[in-house]
């Protein structure tokens, strides 16, 4: 009886393989996976390894998934094993319709057909006509061992040899076409062979079954690389070239662990070159940018795969796309790391020119996802104008908002904006970019000169307290607020404000939880605070609160306030709207009061 593949996959995911094997032998943790003495042959030292979706014994060669383990160990049929595991998983075994049974039978036949096609291509590879393909692989430095490991072969001349071979085995033209081996004609008929005069790269699924092919043409002709079309077996968005090798990388215990890193590269030859150099965890997408489905496949092998991109502009675009694609499905346990190769290098050429030790250093110095996103975002800037900095802030905020896990989103926002303020508003900062066609002048931001006396300290307390009780003005004053050189106790409160800017209740709750609320209460009860602040201000006149904030900011450093007025005026003139007008007027009124020497910010309303 044939069963729906989707149901079988869900069953394998629901039933932890190690828990089923633990019913028969003692299992123990080994890194992210498990190991045990093999239940199929007697041994004293464990060589039986249990991964997320399969087991493998490196002593006797036993291999399979949770269903095959029950079959082999308990002597049960496929159906019996299936019903037993479904009961454990709380799943109901679906009853298949005749159409589903026919579809499953067709899929089974296609696996056999693809295996037969691969054998035909392997036979062609031995023929004199394939010498050009063998010579090409030799020039590229591909060893005979790697050719055998990856099943590399030759398509032949495409004049019907494959069709005759498969028809001789009983397959119809329709089935050969459904497997993706023939050209599809406009009238829904099948044409000649899709692949001819190409070095062939078979594409395997996780169970080591051929599901598609990629072909590299030699000499003139387009496209240079051609992949199988979508078929019942092959969906390129959900497959990675080299995926079948990932199951064994964690068994290599006698080498530097970095060699077992799961690496994502851009092409077939990169995967093979890295494998030859000892990096057996390399995979590549198949003519598409890395998709979320492919990331989930990677995370089944490791929580932190490393994406390796070429050092050209296309590599940078691919890196940015992959980073952004990961954000909605990112978790605190599953992320991405990145390495970038020198310009005009790919993994294949880098290994040949620099050697495997140099590649190990690249992996050792990999960058995490937040650093990569920040650096790429900064590279998109064309200058350091207020408009470009505002665009960067919007982009960083968008990055954090795309992460669905709340705590992780909050941490990303904090890390990204910490770097933003450190780069653009720290003392003696120099802005640099990797763009060779842009040169930026050194930009020095003069922070407010804060005298260490009681009056200035009280003014700083007032600025912080206003934002605790009226965080809605933060967008207008944030830049200036973050540039203030505050003492540690106030700087700690600033961090809470920045983390909880969307809700004043969160700010107060967090301060209380951290034992910081006593400072706010003390400030509120001071006579200075009551001169300019009342509870009604928050609800009735937010603009008045903003003006008062700028007034006390100006009392700390009038030159800084002048600069803020100029900046607000330019923004209003460049793009007039009501909000920019209010911001400009609030700063201007505050400046006028400071110039008149007025300490009390309650004197007039805007």
TrEMBL record:
Its cofactor is Zn(2+). SUPFAM superfamilies: DNA primase core, Zinc beta-ribbon. Its EC number is 2.7.7.101. It is an enzyme of class 2 (transferase). Keywords: DNA replication, DNA-binding, DNA-directed RNA polymerase, Magnesium, Metal-binding, Nucleotidyltransferase, Primosome, Transcription, Transferase, Zinc, Zinc-finger. Binds 1 zinc ion per monomer. The keyword Transcription applies. SMART domains: TOPRIM (SM00493), ZnF_CHCC (SM00400). Residues 260-342 form the Toprim domain. It catalyses: ssDNA + n NTP = ssDNA/pppN(pN)n-1 hybrid + (n-1) diphosphate. It comes from the Bacteria. Belongs to the DnaG primase family. HAMAP family: DNA_primase_DnaG. NCBIfam families: dnaG (TIGR01391). RNA polymerase that catalyzes the synthesis of short RNA molecules used as primers for DNA polymerase during DNA replication. Monomer. Interacts with DnaB. This is DNA primase. It comes from Commensalibacter oyaizuii.
């Amino acid at each position: 009886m044939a069963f729906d593949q989707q149901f079988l996959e869900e069953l394998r995911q629901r039933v932890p393989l190690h828990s089923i094997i633990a019913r028969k032998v003692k299992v123990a943790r080994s890194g992210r996976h498990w190991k045990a003495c093999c239940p199929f042959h007697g041994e004293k030292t464990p060589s039986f390894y249990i991964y997320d979706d399969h087991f493998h014994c490196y002593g006797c060669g036993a291999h399979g998934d949770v269903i095959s383990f029950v079959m082999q160990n308990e002597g049960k049929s496929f159906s019996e094993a299936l019903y037993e595991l479904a009961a454990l998983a709380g799943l109901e075994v679906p009853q298949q319709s005749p159409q589903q049974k026919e579809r499953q039978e067709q899929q089974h036949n296609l696996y056999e057909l693809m295996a037969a096609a691969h054998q035909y291509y392997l036979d062609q590879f031995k023929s004199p006509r394939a010498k050009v393909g063998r010579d090409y692989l030799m020039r590229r430095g591909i060893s005979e061992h790697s050719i055998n490991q990856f099943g590399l072969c030759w398509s032949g001349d495409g004049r019907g040899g494959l069709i005759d071979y498969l028809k001789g085995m009983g397959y119809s033209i329709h089935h050969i076409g459904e497997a993706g081996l023939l050209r599809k004609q406009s009238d829904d008929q099948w044409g000649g062979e899709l692949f001819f005069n190409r070095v062939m790269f078979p594409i395997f699924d996780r169970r080591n079954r051929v599901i598609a092919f990629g072909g590299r043409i030699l000499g003139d002709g387009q496209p240079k690389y051609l992949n199988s079309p979508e078929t019942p077996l092959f969906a390129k968005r959900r497959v990675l070239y080299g995926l079948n090798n990932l199951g064994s990388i964690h068994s290599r215990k006698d080498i530097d662990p970095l060699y077992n890193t799961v690496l994502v590269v851009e092409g077939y030859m990169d995967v093979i070159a890295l494998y030859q150099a000892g990096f057996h965890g390399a995979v590549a997408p198949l003519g598409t940018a890395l998709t979320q489905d492919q990331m989930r496949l990677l995370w089944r092998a490791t929580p932190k795969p490393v994406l390796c991109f070429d050092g050209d502009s296309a590599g940078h675009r691919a890196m940015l796309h992959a980073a952004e694609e990961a954000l909605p499905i990112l978790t605190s346990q599953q992320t991405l790391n990145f390495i970038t190769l020198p310009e005009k290098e790919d993994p294949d050429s880098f290994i040949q020119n620099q050697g495997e030790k140099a590649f190990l250093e690249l992996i050792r110095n990999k960058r995490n996802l937040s650093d990569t996103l920040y650096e790429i975002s900064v590279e998109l800037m064309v200058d350091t104008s207020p408009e470009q900095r505002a665009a960067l802030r919007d982009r960083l905020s968008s990055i954090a908002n795309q992460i669905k896990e709340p705590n992780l989103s909050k941490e990303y926002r904090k890390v990204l904006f910490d770097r933003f303020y450190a780069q653009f508003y720290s003392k003696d900062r120099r802005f640099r970019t990797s763009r060779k066609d842009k040169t930026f002048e050194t930009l020095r931001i003069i922070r407010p000169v804060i005298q260490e006396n009681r009056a200035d300290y009280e003014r700083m307390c007032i600025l912080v307290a206003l934002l605790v009780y009226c965080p809605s003005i933060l967008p207008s004053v944030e830049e200036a607020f973050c540039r203030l050189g505050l003492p540690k106790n106030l700087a700690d409160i600033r961090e809470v404000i920045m983390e909880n800017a969307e809700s004043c209740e969160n700010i107060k709750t967090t301060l209380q939880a951290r034992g910081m609320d006593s400072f706010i209460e003390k400030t509120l009860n001071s006579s200075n605070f009551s001169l300019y602040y009342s509870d009604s201000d928050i609800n009735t006149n937010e603009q008045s609160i903003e003006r008062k904030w700028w007034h006390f900011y100006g009392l700390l450093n009038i030159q800084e306030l002048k600069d803020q007025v100029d900046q607000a005026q330019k923004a209003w003139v460049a793009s007039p709207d009501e909000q920019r007008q209010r911001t400009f007027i609030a700063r201007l009124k505050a400046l006028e009061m400071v110039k008149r020497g007025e300490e009390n910010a309650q004197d007039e309303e805007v």
